[in-house]
Amino acid sequence: MRSHLAAAVVVATSLALVGCSTNQRAVDVQSDLVSLTKSGAVGAIATLDGGNTTMVLTSGVPNLTDGDSIGDNDRVRIGSVTQTFTAALVLQFVAEGKITLDAPVRQYLPNQLGSNAHADLVTVRQLLQPHSGLPEIDGEIPFADSNYLALGTLIEAVSGRSYSDELAARILEPLDLEDTYLPPAGEQDIRGDHLTGYKDLATGRTDVSRTEPSIAWSAGALVSTGKDLNTFWRALLSGRILPDKELAEMTAPQPGSTEADALDYGLGLHVTDLPCGVTYVGHSGGIRGYSTLSGATLDRAFTVTMTSTPKNPPDTIEILSHALCP
Length: 326
Hints:
Blueprint: H1 4-14, H2 20-38, E1 43-50, E2 53-60, E3 76-77, H3 82-95, H4 124-128, H5 143-159, H6 163-172, E4 198-201, E5 204-207, H7 213-220, E6 223-224, H8 226-237, H9 244-251, E7 264-265, E8 270-273, E9 279-287, E10 290-296, E11 300-307, H10 316-324
Antiparallel strand pairs: 1-2, 1-11, 3-6, 4-5, 7-8, 8-9, 9-10, 10-11
Helix pairs in contact: 1-2, 2-10, 3-5, 3-9, 5-7
């Protein structure tokens, strides 16, 4: 088991040849991770990219059974961070002229939105915000996730192929995201080395990392790593995934956003100016047992995941500032 002291030694050694600001960044992020595990998270892992430097910092353990250390490339479930991938696919079709942002979704999915009269007025843009007002599914899946499940179906209707195939062909394979995948229906376990997700139930702390991926699907089923997610964000902001026009649409804060947190919402991602003045784009993802915060500025990318919920909710803006401010 890696102790907090041992982790600090690893950080100090790995930073011996880099600048003072990077060193302080690592110390601050390491402190954030330790705070998460002290407050109840079983494990926490952060991946920071800047220039040609990548750092992986950890605290806690990957599981409560074998005492191993958290690996630099351990997989996790990323929950709603999946939605940025889905939004990017939709906007690729917009760039190709196959989808119009302000067209009614009924134009593409005439039989998919039920008999709700309001659904006739819902546009693709509103699904992406998400601000459509589509009802929750069975009272369990929030409206934002309902929107992104509908967008997954939209992608299949427009492309004539499965959402999984489009995701692989358009994003995962071109970016060599080898540790990112969409589990097929019925595949409840996470492949390879991974962090185990836990939830505090009435019976005690319980392993909840096994889940049915078809429920979250295009709204939250992806499995990935910090390194792959950082690669995705850097590619997105550098124009490798979307043309300039669609990237500008995606990253512009949308009026009427219903996201109830400190970050504005664009199309499939959050947008905010950090206290130091740099603009952050990214997404948070919560799925049973895992909480992920992932995104980038023009200069740096950052992903942090914790397993189980800490007693004290983390300060999102503070964590982002420690990782991404100059």
